[in-house]
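Review form for a predicted model. The reviewer records the input and the model, then writes brief findings.
Reviewer: anonymous (R2)
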Amino acid sequence: MRALVGDPKVVCAGGFLLLLALVAILAPLVAPHDPLEQDLMLATVPPAGFSGADPAHLLGTDGLGRDVLSRLIFGSRIALTVALVAAAIAALAGTLLGLLAGYFGGIIDALVSRLVEIWMAFPPVLLSILVVAILGSGIHSVIVAIAIIDWTRFARVVRADTMAQAEMDYVTAARTMGFARAAILFGEILPNVTPLLMALVSLEMGIAVIVEAILSFVGLSVSSDTPTWGGMIAEGRQIIHQAWWVFAAPLVALFLTVLAFNQLGEGLRRALDPVMRR
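Model under review:
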């Protein structure tokens, strides 16, 4: 904890993500307007500080007169939900396979390794679009698509770390004492793999936010009337010369969120990895 608190990048990234999570949870209370409310008389009103701005719309309005800030706040709910759930599912599946492959080796390792290699041969974004197109649009389809794609990242990293941990003296001592294989794998090796896993989950959440935005951009995420950052970017791109703020606001939010997840992941790795601490 001292290492984490002493890292300004981790503090800034963690603080930003905590604030974003609170805003997403309290979206109905903190959003100044209904994100779906349209007012064509107030279409493309610029943000505060620019000529013609409306004090009631701090980040301006889009082409249909909807409040950009409110849509940005409600869009964060979709982004964080997909990031959290998809990363958790991918981590669970990939960690389990990586542990089994790294500890038992042999035919299990060969099967898992070949499966990972085959899976990673497909372009991830195209594969996610294909999965969502087959399953149909919706947040559940997006989560499934991301989990199906990114479990391989966890499997490879956990497999390599498990193989290294299996050679340690504490594992040899556990075998000598007669511990069962399951007890050694989940009671001894898994806790020592967890620090690396925590950092990887944070990085994966940033990737999940990007993938969800891409799917929203092409119209394969949630329904079109639900605010999403990718959908806002797609809408803003069409009127970028008349209302650049509609495009810029979700793009900045997306950039800062992914950057925060990446910085948090790197900070966790530096703080929890004993090799990097030395």
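Findings: The CA atoms of residues 40 and 255 lie 30 Å apart.
Further findings: The chain has a mean pLDDT of 85.
Recommendation: see findings above.
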